[in-house]
Amino acid sequence: MVLNNLMEGLVAYDLTSENLDLVPALALSWESNENASEWTFKLRKDVKWSDGVAFTAQHAADGLFRLIDPKTAAKYAYFVYGIKNAKPFSTGELKDVSQVGINVIDDYTIKITLEKPMSFFPQLLTHVPTFPVRLDVIEKYGDTWTEAKNIVTLGPYKLKVWDHDKAIVLEQNKTYFGSPAKTPFILGYIINETTTARNMFDLGRLDAQMDLPANELGILRERKEFDEQPILGIFYFGFNTKKPPMDNLNVRKAISMAIDKNEIVKMLGGGQIPLNGWVPKGMMGYDENMGLKLNVEQANALLDQAGYKDRSKFPRITLSFNTNDNHKRLAENVQAQLKKNLGIQVDLKNEEWKVYLDSLRTDPPHIFRLGWLADIPDPDNFMNFLLSDSDNNHTNWGNQRFDKLVIEAASVTDQEKRLEMYEEAQRILVEKDIPVMPIYTMVENMMVHQRVKNFPTNAISQLKFKNLEITN
Amino acid sequence: MSKYLFIVLSAVFLFTGCQKKQSADYGLDLNKTFRMHFKPNLPHWIGQSLLIPRALWCLTTLWKVSWPMI
Q1: How does pLDDT run across A383-425, given as a tens digit for each residue?
Q2: Distance from CA of B52 to the nearest CA of A (A)
Q3: Which of A95, A162, A409, B48 is deepest in the core (most CB within 10 A)?
Q4: What are residue A187's DSSP bridge partners?
Q5: Is the pLDDT of residue A321 over 80?
């Protein structure tokens, strides 16, 4: 959220358009060769960083090189593995950086060569990890380059204050190349408890709050400040497919068929849409008939087949979630449903976000909750993080056919053919192998004070504040 | 008398020090500021644990200042 306001990518989404059309940002124009395997971007010449240094194509190239540099060990490196030799360079197999398909043609032209044709490549450059960087600043300040006193930016805002774990203040960047931000300051209070934030909203100390307390949604929904926006995001549970008894496919299927997702969204009361397939409602490839449906009788039969006819022999399993009121309520609901529908015991465990991520990396529990928000509005984005070599795949699951389909679909320019490939890939995920259990398509609930105009809601949840206005 | 002053000042200083950041507006003109709830990326306890060194620093400073009076 913060970086989307401090920085810019080469291209951006028109967040006011229904289809999220691409519009120029740091690039004035872009074009590909005939089969979309080479992309050339012509950059603006009037952009300056906040320290007065002129923006050039080298900064754009540095951003991409840094993302795939093995020393950076970026979680999102896989995101640009479509660039020629980006993957072998990122994994350390290739040392010669000149072999990577990122070429600075001149100060204002950059050419990207891909492994295979990719019709949606420019969309990747709307995503924060691909944004330009200043290597000289990173080298000068080391780990503290992102502190307010050190960071240099080129977006509509500058970082004025970063009071760690308390607040962030953004200040209008007067040297921004586009139309200036309409509100001079953005003050973000970093608050863990949603009820604390809601109290502050009621006291007039917050102008907007997203992530509302679930148990108050019924009341908040009646207020004039309430608003909601369906977004391209999913809430799901992952299974650690190597941890018994979750290594048994019938167990994973049984659990997936024993959960009533309608009951969950009703309990949450936030307008969420139950999901059985993998891509969210509103995205290409969404199919409401895909995936396993609620069927308690069949779920029990599957658990019997898995060797647990005597339910007392079924080991206690752990369901983990990161600390959050809403996640807790949902986890408790799943725990109760599995007890009632399958007669199995589930222990709940919650951890703070960073600790939780470490646990998922080192020793994922039997079942873990996660969400995925679209980085780009394309099904590839929901598929490729479950590739067998993705750092974001915590299920210990991999399927060669799935990998092949997803990797090849990214380079297919025929949209119907792509859809067929994604359909098969989705069925592997949610009908055949079941490393994941989708729960719902997300809906963003928010409270926005009446004095705020143009609050930036959109389907990909990119909060860009430059057009937001405060009326007093 | 000075001891009591030290205790009272310590209590006030610590209380306001702990509360300050929760309500800070960073000297901004609120008519020109949009204020929003940001979700944390770091564990909650890290923020809380910073209160301990903050408190120790407050106490040490106050003790140094007050010592000549006591």
Answers
A1: 989 999 898 999 999 999 999 999 889 888 788 898 999 999 9
A2: 15
A3: A409
A4: A169, B35
A5: yes
pLDDT over threshold 90, residue A17:
no
Least CB–CB distance from B37: residue in A160, A191, A355: A191
* pLDDT digits 0-9 by tens, A166-191: 899 999 999 999 999 999 999 999 98
Please check whether residue B51 touches A, CB under 8 A.
no
